[in-house]
């Protein structure tokens, strides 16, 4: 299992609010290389599959409605220690608890509309990357 890749999505709130460029700048400044990227939209069924692990949680319907409500940017990012370093860069799930300088502190609207996704393990980074990209789309 490689540890130098993570998977991210710029979520519909941040896209609609015009933050794609600023968020990508922060990602680049933090030393991540973009290995794959697409501007896309996921269906409700794809969102349900992607967030399957949360299916028993009370926010599952709202989360999957939201994630399928508008365009997103999906990307695979490369850097040593990618998963942990990217989680640090995005900050806590709840932007009210996110540290200064993190992406969620700066761009998230709320706990549910929190601007970005970042994989939580090397295994999930691999699964989530494969959810959006085929081998020939990763450079
Ligand atoms: P993470 O994105 O920081 O890893 P997770 O616990 O994996 O957080 O939750 C996935 C996503 O579900 C969060 O990013 C957020 O959009 C949403 N979410 C998590 N907990 C809540 C909640 O208590 N209320 C509403 N939405 C939530």
UniProtKB/TrEMBL annotation:
Which class of enzymes does this protein belong to?
transferase
Its main subcellular localisation, reduced to a broad class, is cytoplasm
| GO MF annotation: an example | nucleoside diphosphate kinase activity
Cofactor(s) the protein requires to work: Mg(2+)
Q: Does the keyword Cytoplasm apply?
A: yes
- Any single biological process term in GO: CTP biosynthetic process
Query: What Enzyme Commission number(s) appear in the record?
Result: 2.7.4.6
Where is the protein localized? Cytoplasm
User: Nucleotide-binding among the record's keywords?
Assistant: yes
> One cellular component GO annotation, for this chain's record?
cytoplasm
The entry sums up its family as follows: Belongs to the NDK family.
Q: Which InterPro entries match?
A: NDK-like_dom, NDK-like_dom_sf, Nucleoside_diP_kinase
For ATP, which residues are the binding ones?
Answer: 11, 59, 87, 93, 104, 114
What is this protein called in UniProt? Nucleoside diphosphate kinase
> What does the subunit comment say?
Homotetramer.
